[in-house]
Amino acid sequence: MKITKLLLLSILTLSIASCIKKEALNAEADILSCSLPEELLANDLIDTNRPFDEGLQAHPIYIYIKEGTDRTQLKPIFKLTPGAIIKPESGSTQDFTKPVKYTVTSEDQNWHRDYLIYAIPQTNENIPTFFHFETTKQNGKYIEFYETNDKQSITWASGNGGFKFAVPSAGPYDYPTTQDSKGKSGKCVKLSTKNTGSLGEMVNMPIAAGNLFLGQFNIGDAITRPLQATQFGVAFYEKPISMSGYYKYKASDHFYNGNGYIQKKDVFDIYAIFYETDEQTKFMDGKLAAEYNFVHPNMVAMARVDVTPETAETDEWKHFNIQFDYKSYGKQIDPAKLKAGKYNLSIVMASSRDGALFKGAPGSTLWVDEVKIECK
Fold it and tell me: What pLDDT was estimated at residue 9?
């Protein structure tokens, strides 16, 4: 019996050592951070953790710069994993009128990673405000939604990147956030709460709610600081008045409550937040709902679909039209700050309302389509 235990322990130790070695080698060719002078940046949230894009054959990085910045003379500075080198060199002048490809090579020369970096002028024109969920692209194994108007394009974020690590064998339509062909009009977004398999169980994150939001998902925080991984908000230049759209919902009642599974009806969430940014608050994250109950000094307004476990389910498309609540926060919008892009908007939707806390019922599914923000 002791020999068997020792053998199993040895195998486990070797397996863990092998995994650590592989992870270290892969990580040795990473861009950890990217920066430009603050006066050039329209948004200093630069996500260097986006997954590999098969269409680009690189990891994309998007830098949002102020309108009018000379993109032909930009000198981004990179922090790399120890010992790695980057070509073109960190701090070298590059022409970003087109995306620039960078290659990071590990210290032992055995690993490399390609990045495609975009410098995007941030205009004072609004992002699209009518979302049809028709246009997608495949980012690695999963689907990303994007929308365009005459001035700008916006890509929705989701937690699919975290699910990819938990269930690497999943296909594009096995992910919590995907597309469905039977929308209210054309196609729609489909959000489902999923089991995360043995790896999710190991880290006490056994479920993943389907979610979609305006902002970015920081994969680097997904395991250690999951609430901070969902970074809500994009710059918005008008006063939002209402949010409308359509949804369907099927709730499961095999609910994981943090300790185990109980019989409890799940419920979805759809809301929009409008808030002011400053040096201390660059964005809101998952703590806003999970810990602060939407009470925060920077909050200006909110619109939320009001449902309960008893009223949430519907087999037919149900219309919603909710006014943004400004009175509860007692804030006045500063026109100069609004024009300068100092206010952020995010729309957030999830198949399980408490999914950010890894509470929800696998099988709960939310379909959403034709979401529109009316502005003043």
Answer: 37
